[in-house]
Amino acid sequence: xxxxxxxxxxxxxxxxxxxxxxxxxxxxxxxxxxxxxxxxxxxxxxxxxxxxxxxxxxxxxxxxxxxxxxxxxxxxxxxxxxxxxxxxxxxxxxxxxxxxxxxxxxxxxxxxxxxxxxxxxxxxxxxxxxxxxxxxxxxxxxxxxxxxxxxxxxxxxxxxxxxxxxxxxxxxxxxxxxxxxxxxxxxxxxxxxxxxxxxxxxxxxxxxxxxxxxxxxxxxxxxxxxxxxxxxxxxxxxxxxxxxxxxxxxxxxxxxxxxxxxxxxxxxxxxxxxxxxxxxxxxxxxxxxxxxxxxxxxxxxxxxxxxxxxxxxxxxxxxxxxxxxxxxxxxxxxxxxxxxxxxxxxxxxxxxx
Amino acid sequence: xxxxxxxxxxxxxxxxxxxxxxxxxxxxxxxxxxxxxxxxxxxxxxxxxxxxxxxxxxxxxxxxxxxxxxxxxxxxxxxxxxxxxxxxxxxxxxxxxxxxxxxxxxxxxxxxxxxxxxxxxxxxxxxxxxxxxxxxxxxxxxxxxxxxxxxxxxxxxxxxxxxxxxxxxxxxxxxxxxxxxxxxxxxxxxxxxxxxxxxxxxxxxxxxxxxxxxxxxxxxxxxxxxxxxxxxxxxxxxxxxxxxxxxxxxx
Lengths: 353, 251
Ligand SMILES: Nc1ncnc2c1ncn2[C@@H]1O[C@H](COP(=O)(O)OP(=O)(O)OP(=O)(O)O)[C@@H](O)[C@H]1O
Ligand SMILES: [Mg+2]
Hints:
The complex is a heterodimer of chains A (353) and B (251). By secondary structure, chain A is mainly α. Helices cover 71% and strands 2% of the residues of chain A. In chain A, the strands form 2 sheets. In chain A, strands 1-4 form a two-stranded antiparallel ribbon. Chain A starts with 22 loop residues before the first helix and ends in a 7-residue tail after the last helix.
């Protein structure tokens, strides 16, 4: 010991509480985190009142409406689960819409071709598998562009948007590809005790994705990368490998979306996912994720996707001109971002200067 | 563990260089740290201190020279490899994920898992929170909201989290880049007393600081860097502030 000044041992300090725990504030921030669900509830109440006043009929207690809304939400939700992972990591995937279209066309072709050789149920499975695997290819390219060649996600996936679009139309021969497979049609339109198979499959898939995001290292690293790539890298996380897997995952979500689209319409179409890309981003943002990365949840995105589906279906149900849907969804996106800003101010989190 | 070299240095760098294009941030630099020794690294802004520790800890690949751990030459392709060999680094620009809890930051990159329902692997958040609580109270930081993201804490508190991570992982060599720079006086003292604890436990510490008072309070030796080269090395008991400043500015 060469040190001259005696330094007090740490035990002698009586340190104040290191954080500023305040139960009331935590409650506010918890409510704000579930805001997409509150929003959804409010929206349903509005449509219920509107529907009763205008037609004297119930909106939400009508099982047909519920089924339709759920079916409406399936495809955007599948895209949005993958998009949630990507946005939390600080990226964005603009190619999902046409990857879904490509997958729908592949699913149709593959199911038909396999159906000529093997039993129909197996052909259906082969078609789904083929579409998800083919969807992974643009995902791999996205991932390599972004992780190895440092192409910004916005640009890389925008390029892939064009490539996947062209490939899908070429593969479809410029038209839609009908599916000849009764099992596939049943998968897309059948029900189990009133619940469409598509909804069941999507629900199971969403729960798996929730598990992946909230309970595994992959999910944890995804949050860390979105907040501070440098910290994540220094902690020994394999950033390149993670980013690659991330974009493959999101492309495969779109692949499943494409396969289910082909099942529902018994046809594959290159433009299947075209209008859904922006809905997927909107669902993630309404669900509480920040486009700057680092925050968001799968269940938030589920609420976000349901908000969009309720607005779209509800406005049709109460006979409003369809163009109002765009305006309504746009307004909701802006409001949810404003709420997010306000929440940061109230919840005691670090604020921007 | 290799015990052939018990009284020798824990960590030694020989003729280490790191060039960024034409910039010779570090040139032919040598130093050593023995067990239970605190070595201060001093030098003006841009002298190459941060570059040196990044080259040691696997962030940068050195342009030349070698690193020896307990006498054995080693190379670290990634910071992870250095950590696995017991070298923990606390960086000047804090390396925390602000959106995660203290526990999640301590375990970032090597999260503990448990089996839910007997088969499903899930993150063991309880273990992370418990380790966070224990580690932070060892550093005399008492935290009630273990689930809160570290963005809710002050700079000093976050520094303590970074130090806590190294302590938790039982690093044999700790490298700290200006650990007291962002702290208030009481928190600075805590870090200094913590370094004393680490020393008493027989760990080696490399400690970068611009604060000569801190350096003289805690170090055994001081190594001065000037424009990427070693400008001098002194035992703390045999030098004084003036001499160190002269070494830093040259002349
Ligand atoms: N990643 C990098 N790429 C290029 N040049 C770099 C890089 N990092 C550091 N340098 C250069 O290397 C030199 C040494 O920088 P370094 O950060 O090691 O200094 P320092 O001693 O830590 O200074 P300070 O006391 O200000 O932290 C500087 O000229 C700096 O510009
Ligand atoms: Mg520095």
